[in-house]
Amino acid sequence: MLRILRPVIARLLAPLGRGLARVGLTPNTVTFLGTTGVVASALYFYPRGELLAGTLMITVFALFDMVDGAVARASDAESRWGAFLDSTLDRLADAAILSGLILWFTGGGDSLSLAAITLFCLVTGFGVSYVKARAEALGANCDVGIAERTERLIVLLTAVGLNELGVPHALPVGLVGLALISAITIAQRLIETRARLTEPRQAADSS
Questions:
Q1: Does residue 28 have a known ligand-binding role?
Q2: Would you list the domain boundaries of the chain?
Q3: Is-catalytic flag, 143?
Q4: Phi/psi at 75 (nearest 5 deg)?
Q5: Mean pLDDT of 40-48
Q6: Residue 65, annotated ligand binder?
């Protein structure tokens, strides 16, 4: 849904990307630093119940995910390897965030129901990414769905943050919402992929 804002965001981040490129930072370095920060913050703060601090730190480091592309464009260093590395590390960061919450819910958070919902979000989050990757490996464009990674991350971090600011039921509602939009996105991508992969065969059969 937020893909329509990508050109605007790219223009806003262009000066920062040029600045980081001038000081010698490579896109892959920015990606690695961002992922390391997210993973460390999620697995340190969340299991200890320090959800607000963890969310703030994760948000800061998650911004690196947008900056690495700006650095790549500024230094003319866009590559397939960089895209692959970015996508792979994104999966690790997402897993760390949700795993940190699961550790809290099964420990001091004392909520097996929220732990189960969070686990569902973890599984479906990987499903969203896998369906697209597998479809595109088979030659089918699968750039559809109501909730890509950015949308899912915003929903999750907003829910955790609002919960820590005292908004009633923000976290359970946010997690249930995340679970729903993740499942819907998988369904949308499966439907789109099936249509694209079966269309040529149907055309050939009709001829």
A1: yes
A2: 2-18+26-198
A3: no
A4: -100, 5
A5: 97
A6: yes
